[in-house]
Amino acid sequence: MVTSRIFSCKPLWKLLIDKDLNKTRLQDLAGLSPATMDTLNKGGNATTEVLARICEVLGSDISEICEIVPLETPEATIDDTKGEQ
Fold it and tell me: What is the rounded CA–CA span in Å between residue 63 and residue 46?
């Protein structure tokens, strides 16, 4: 069985805290539109260009700003618990 996965930007938000930056400052530094920031805030898709700009501004690697996580669905939760005791 294949489990669906999505990208999460949770590491980005943690990195901003560590670097004492807020989302508005990141938007300005990376030249991101308000719509792009809104998409990121809502967990939507971002282009590789956007991710590369963020990495460049923060001096980070892609693995420091996003991660792949399982998509939480009722079916996945049920299937993941089978066989566990």
Answer: 15
Residue 15: its pLDDT value, please?
97
| pLDDT tens track, the chain, 85 positions | 556 888 899 999 999 999 999 999 999 999 999 999 999 999 898 999 999 999 999 999 999 999 998 876 655 444 455 544 4
CATH code for the structural domain at 5-81: 1.10.260.40
Domain boundaries along the sequence of the chain: 5-81
Q: Of 73, 65, 70, which Cα lies nearest the Cα of 32? A: 65
Cα separation, 78 vs 65, in Å, equals: 29
